[in-house]
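ok here's RNA pseudouridine synthase:
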Amino acid sequence: MAENGAHHPDYFYRNIMKINFKDIILFEDEDFLVVNKPPHLATLDERTADRGGSVLRLAKEYNPELQAAHRLDKETSGALAFAKNPAAYRHLAMQFEHREVTKRYHAVVNGIHDLENISVYLPILPLKNGTAVKIDRAAGKEAETIFNTLQVYRGYTLVECIPITGRMHQIRVHLSCLKAPIVCDPQYGGEQIFLSSLKRKFNLKKDTEEQPLIQRVALHARSLSFAIMNGEDIRVEAPYPKDFDVLVKQLNKFGM
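and the structure:
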């Protein structure tokens, strides 16, 4: 498989400015808006040299009043909520604080794992450089995630992850503790996934280097459930983006 431009991170940087914000909206009422965040795009403007913009910047071009109600890691795709006014922001912030928002993520992990309502309850401490975390029973902050196996493949598993708390890199480090690191997450022990590891007959064109099936941490925020201003509970589901969709389709086709 030759270099696939659509899978390369630089492809996303070049195309971020082409994102039509309306195209990524999953839900909208007069108080809230939920989008399907593309991978490789920060939720908020980054402090470092700003290369790729942010979802918030795109959101404010659409509606200057929008405020991000939570955040997703830059590489993570999926359901991300915004509030349109201060009352809506407070309403959702309180739900997050009282753990009344249900977030469901899908992750492709290394190895075969049979997980049924497995709760990982291990405290997390950010490292001093702020780019990673570790488990620290003495100094870490309370963190809990529930995991369920959705589909088992040869050498890989599709897992549903439900974070009860909202610590940085929580799902990633908790899966690592289960010896189930997320595919393409070297920071926490995850290895890359190649089509040649799934297909029994695999021929690479001469003078080409095989590229991984996904070029980012294989984690997607699949759905978000919360109460809107009238008290009604809603669940907003985010379809897989192209790279995650291709990965799962190839697993379904060749990894069973």
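+1. The two ends are 21 Å apart (CA to CA).
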